[in-house]
Amino acid sequence: MASAADYNRPQPMSYEDQQRMAHATYVARMQRRSMPPRCNPFTILLLVMSIGMMFTGVTMTIIAHWPGATQIGENPLEIAGPVLFGIGGVLVLVSILLVYVINQRERRKFDEKLHVMVKDKM
After folding, report:
1. Contacting residues for 46 by C-beta, under 8 A, at least 6 apart
2. Domain spans, the chain
3. Is the CB of residue 119 less than 8 Å from the CB of residue 21?
4. Threshold 0.70, pTM exceeds
5. Phi first, then psi: what are they for 114, rounded to 5°?
6. pLDDT of residue 50
7. What is the pLDDT of residue 108?
8. Measured between alpha carbons, how far is 53 from 89 in angstroms, rounded to an integer?
9. Which of 91, 97, 106, 119 has the most crowded Cβ, counting Cβ within 10 A?
10. What is the DSSP string of 29-56?
């Protein structure tokens, strides 16, 4: 008579089961690839703020260098505009990198769940 431990022991997969599992995994990955990248709200907010900072920095720089807009002394917009534009540019790069890292983490979780789900179905 078989014990309960014998029923819970994983059975070796046949070659056909391995092929079916590989095909199901391939199809699910292709479906996942066709999905657009997902952005979480933090990265969307960071992207919008950094693009706004870049736009503001360019506007400040243009106003500072507009002909006839020179004042006696140093114009503070000549310094603040390019600095704000640079900070915005760095934040855009950071937010794009963050979107990539988060998508890779979600893809890894998806692959792990997919592997468990396909293995349970076999």
Report:
1. 91, 94, 95, 98
2. 14-121
3. yes
4. no
5. -65, -45
6. 95
7. 85
8. 8
9. 91
10. HHHHHTSPPP--HHHHHHHHHHHHHHHH
Residue with tokens 């349970």, as numbered in its chain? 120
Nearest 5°: the CA angle 102, 41, 43 is 55
Look over the chain and give the mean of its residue pLDDT values, rounded to a whole number. Answer: 79
**C-alpha distance from residue 109 to each of 31, 78, 102, 113, 114 (Å):** 15, 48, 11, 6, 8
Q: Which contiguous run of DSSP H or E holds residue 34?
A: none
Q: Give counts: helices (H), strands (E), the chain.
A: 4, 0
CB 16 within 8 A of CB 75: no
d(CA 107, CA 28): 12
What are the DSSP calls for 89-100, one per residue? HHHHHHHHHHHH
Question: One-letter amino acid identity for 108?
Answer: R
